[in-house]
Amino acid sequence: MEKRKFWVFQRGDPEKGETVLRLDGPIAKESWFGDEVTPALFLSELERHPGDLTVWINSPGGDVFAASQIYTMLMDHQGKITVKVEGLAASAASVIAMAGGEVLMSPSSMMMIHNPTTIAEGWKDEMERAVSILEEVKASIINAYELKTGLSRHCYRDCPSLRLINVQDCGSRRQHRQRPLARNQEPCFLALG
Questions:
Q1: Does residue 55 contact residue 103 with C-beta atoms inside 8 Å?
Q2: What whole-number distance in Å separates Cα of residue 112 and Cα of residue 116?
Q3: What does the DSSP 8-state code read for residue 27?
Q4: For residue 175, what is the DSSP state?
Q5: Paired strand residues for 164
Q6: Structural domains for the chain
Q7: How confident is the model over 47-104, as pLDDT tens digits?
Q8: pTM, whole model, 2 decimals?
Q9: CA-CA distance, 14 to 182, in Å (whole number)?
């Protein structure tokens, strides 16, 4: 059975030398069930597409360490990165979204951020170690949000354990501005940062 990736590179606007990258599905460090992203494979494909990149995201999230690798690969990519959230950028996918020089959200899209989760078992010292790891993971995720938005770490550290953000939320905080989509007269996206 052929494994299915959740990303697809497509030719974008040839005049701009742009490539379109569509991310659609769960993110995982290793290939589970044949439909999650493997960062090594992602990097090998990304390297074949130099220049500007428009990244469309619709993902429920997944493995935060795989997302961190993809975020870093996109940040290191030579070319302008524009991220467009077309449906959902939840959990680890919201970290990937922070790699965009410009991050745009469809009027009907959502971004979900939350405290990291894990499963642990064992004695008290093992539970304390799990809590310590979760605190470090949260701090690393906040690095990406803080770098992109310029907002204080306290805005994220003190947020509820789960937060859904829609375009209305973005506009009410005045952290976003309206931008038209590149194609014809389609609906606007709101830009983060």
A1: no
A2: 12
A3: B
A4: -
A5: 112
A6: 7-192 (3.90.226.10)
A7: 999 899 999 999 999 888 888 989 999 999 999 999 999 999 999 999 999 999 999 9
A8: 0.81
A9: 14
